Amino acid sequence: MNRGAAMAAVMALVLGAAWLGRRAAVKEIPSPVPLLQGGASWTIPDFALKDDRSRVVKRADLSGKPWVAAFIYADCGSQCPMMTAKMKALRQGLPEAFLVSFSVDGNDTPERLAAYKKATGADWLFLTGKSGEVEELCRTGFKLPVADGVDEAEPIIHSDKLVLVDRDGRVRGFYDPADAEHLAGLARTLKSL
Fold it and tell me: What percent of the chain has pLDDT over 90?
């Protein structure tokens, strides 16, 4: 073996060992929760809404901590009670979790949301805004559907997904509250953020 071939073989061994060592080190570090398609460009837009005590809450107030969002309204007789119950279960399993329920009904005043919270035993943040304000945030910021219903029984049609938002205001995932595996995955992911 000539000197050049010997050097190439040694370099291949050194680089291979370094690559294997780096690969082993990388395996020990848990991978971060991946961003959804669109990555960092999919940040929730700024908002200023009122909570159930009439205080103004902005997106910046939620920065620095991961949180879970749900879209509901107080008079909903279909999916909203289930979603609120699942948020309550999430709260019981993860008392430190930061939860936010947004009302998609412009008629939901802070007082109505306070009454809803009391009636359901919820202890997290509820937000409302002027007519159309939360609906627009739902559609453009969270990329979830919301529309006027076709009858009085269901005046607003909206998504039942729970949304995980990271500490930088980026959407990290959508979870089906009716699916136990989804809720368990949400709890695990929330802990990892």
Answer: 64
DSSP-derived secondary structure for 56-85: EEEGGGGTTS-EEEEEE-TT--SHHHHHHH
The residues spanned by each domain of the chain are 1-30, 39-192
CATH level 3 topology of 39-192: Glutaredoxin (3.40.30)
Q: Which helix (H) or strand (E) holds 119?
A: helix 110-120
Dihedral angle of Cα 105, 111, 112, 113, to the nearest 10 degrees? 70
Q: What is the pLDDT of residue 53?
A: 97
Quick: pLDDT tens for 12-57.
443 344 434 433 333 333 334 455 544 444 799 999 999 999 999 9
Amino acid 94 reads L
User: DSSP string covering 125-152, please?
Assistant: EEEE-STTHHHHIIIIIS---EEEEEET
User: Which stretch of 16-25, 119-128, 184-193 has the lowest confidence by average pLDDT?
Assistant: 16-25
